[in-house]
Hints:
This protein is α+β, with helices and mostly antiparallel strands and about 500 residues long.
Amino acid sequence: MPLRPVVSNIGAPTYMLSKYVGRILQSSINSNYNIRDSFSFCTFINSVRLPENHILVSFDVTSLFTCIPRHMIPGIIIERWEEIKKHTHINLDLFLEIVNFCLECSYFSYRGNYYKQIFGTAMGSPLSPIIADLVMESLLDNVVSRLNFPIPLIKKYVDDLVLALPPDKVVEVMNVFNSFNENIQFTYEMEENGRLPFLDMVLVRQQDQTIRTEWYSKPMSPGRLLDFLSAHPLHLKMNTVNNFMRRVREFITNLSNEAADNTIDVILKLNHYPAPLRHRLLNRGIARRTNTPPSDETQVVYKSMLFVNDLTQRLSKSLKAALPNVVLAARYEKTTKQLYTNTKDVIPPEMRNNVIYRIPCNDCAASYVGLTTTQLKKRISGHRSTINQLEELVTSNSDSPTTKFEIERLREKTALLQHSIDEQHRFNLEKTQILDQHRRQTALPILEVCHILNTPNNINKRSDIECLSSMYAGIFHTLHTKRSKVTNTATITEIPNSYQNESNHVVPT
């Protein structure tokens, strides 16, 4: 099995620019081949009648994203520019430069080495699916124009194609597809006994050349849904089951309802759904939820909350009554990411951003807690610069009003400088410690306040903690009590890791 790195571009330098040009390109695509989803395709294919002596065939591209020649992309954009320019005010030359820049600047680091995408498009970039779609559109237009016979059915879902062809023309069509570009190569699969798997259904060609469908799962599929015994809210399990039942019932069009219900019952039983619940779900059908769009006066706000069985449901119910415009989503502490902790390089501490940090004082037990959304080394460089300014003013031995004014101005900047001036102490920037990190910048101010309260001998200003609700008081009392039991002489860096982990996870973010 070939391995290909899938690198998340979220937070990468070109991420927002790639999304921007991707939306422009996506808006310009008006395809006759694309399939929106399985449900719309099922509705379409059940109304199709194939010509006589035609069979169903599926074509699949071998590694589409990583095999797209970049030199083709400018030509495709130029061909479609008349449609693309309707969705942007950027001129053609600049647009091509932006697309090329986004595609060329795909890189990642692994085990200390940097790797750059030198061919194809990066898997994980928001621009890659749109570029792949454009290339496939160009390929299909090219192939259809070169064939000397019509193709009555040709539909595409990303890199999967389904076609209706005469049996003796399959190889010929395959060769035309593969001749479009030496890097973009296809494999094909013909129907067997009138049956062809495509997406999550089986297309069944009947004797009158009409198409009916069945729900399909791959032979390797274990048939696992969200288990009934898993630690998830009941409504999430029911939504998963309702979605599964809908797919099975809508995709099975050539079998009886009893056959569909038997399929559903087997899968639900495998996932430990109790018999009374299974029977009730099958008898009542699919519960469809109608979401009423919010009015202009009410704006829905989405928030996440750590899921604790029974407690989260009751909190959600209480908050729904008090704040009807707030929708809560359960967040789970145990994720699959915890199983793959060594697949990425560890980012050096000084290169991390969105962090809460602590700087100890060289001359006493005090420490300063701060936050930064930029890289930590830039923030530390800012602290070093202001400390150097202060030292120059102090060593100048000048009593001029200008010097006093400059010192007072520095004193008002941060509590760190205030402590340095009042106590004539200096902070050890080389021993800066990261206390916490969060990808959402909106969570950082609350995290900073919590760490200020949880850090003994901190010198932060009182105004830094005034925004925290009094409901946190019990939590911090428990933490302080536990810390005092560890040791009376330990510093923060000497506290066991088990305690640090606990303090990092107590405060919901």
